[in-house]
């Protein structure tokens, strides 16, 4: 468990370094052919995002086909190679905007392939009774990395240049790969290639399994709504804070309190007496309606900052509960494919909110989109509580893993036992 935590912390810090490094490198014209405009930056960031979205379903299939530690190893090595190349080109003064776009696309593709595999890696490495604690620690590490990453990248940029920041990023990804690549898992041996269905059949199987879990689809829809509204708040919130809450410092205070709230929530997630985790997941996401309402109504800074703190606390509690629920309720043999749909919605919804917030606000003003978003995020997430599955208490975990398994997993075990008996096994 310790190696898993160290490896993912390295990867989280490396991921947090990338946006600030690219932003400063492009806006300061360190890339040949760069005009220092937002257009260059938008092109590079889009080249990272699009492969991520397109390849996630493919990545889910591979995460279920191959050992997850090997998929993570390959993905992190690929990200490390891409970032190291960017660093070397920046130091040599030869990097071109098209080069950055291609390397950003490689990075995005690697993120796509690594994301579903990480969730599976936790499930096959850590016993069910310890997963909530580990997921909580992983979220704390990610939150700290997201806080430290921009400051670290900016400091390196000022002291030694953007190239060294990219080299550090590459080294962290390689460190993550070497830490996680040799992890011992409890996953059973996979069948020989001859008995495996084709890619499209596996993809259909993953979608069929996804549709079977109403609780999963309901929560993923709700999470997509809050990611979308988060894009609105992160775009319009600073404008409202600067205009009516006291200037630039007001939004800095709100953002810092939000970070603290998220870290406190992630820390508390494994310590709260949460008998019905999916209820906590739904309520944790619905609380995001509070800052949307506060900013939409133009409330005073103390109210808006407190609302954002509570919302991020709720999201901090939500994340480890959600990851643990997926790892407990979804059979391991389809976890990558099912989880990839969750990641796809999350990765797509927030950039969409960021992109359309200003055009919508130009037509409707800043208040209407935020207030409408508050209603939507509360309704979409609390609607999941209408399902009986949300009120089920998870059965106690045994030392060997989950006590409760889904039908597909049970069928797989039964088939494995039958094969063992036929072969003269125990």
From TrEMBL:
Top-rank lineage group of the source organism: Bacteria
Family annotation (InterPro entries): MFS, MFS_trans_sf
Pfam families according to UniProt: MFS_1
CDD domains reported in the protein's UniProt record: MFS_MefA_like
Keyword annotations of the record: Cell membrane, Membrane, Transmembrane, Transmembrane helix
Localization annotation: Cell membrane
UniProt-recorded name of the protein: Major Facilitator Superfamily protein
